[in-house]
Amino acid sequence: MLKKAGIVAGAAAGLLMIGGTAFASPIHTTGTPDPTFGDAYATFIEGGGALGYGAASLVAGAYTGIATTPALILHSLEHHGH
């Protein structure tokens, strides 16, 4: 299960990195100015924090689910008299 979670997290990270370049591209047709270095740096730092939080949440949730599922199943069977 953790292997699958790692693959999903890696794929999501890759898509986020590829998709981020589309938003960083300057748009000259609408008159929007090119982003400054400060803007790009702030966006990079903010995105990295969000990516780290998301990955940590995914791993913590998977670990918790794996650790508690057997006990939940046993409790459910016990409760229903099987």
From TrEMBL:
It comes from the Bacteria. Keywords: Signal. Residues 1-24 form the signal peptide. The keyword Signal applies. This is Secreted protein. It comes from Amycolatopsis panacis.
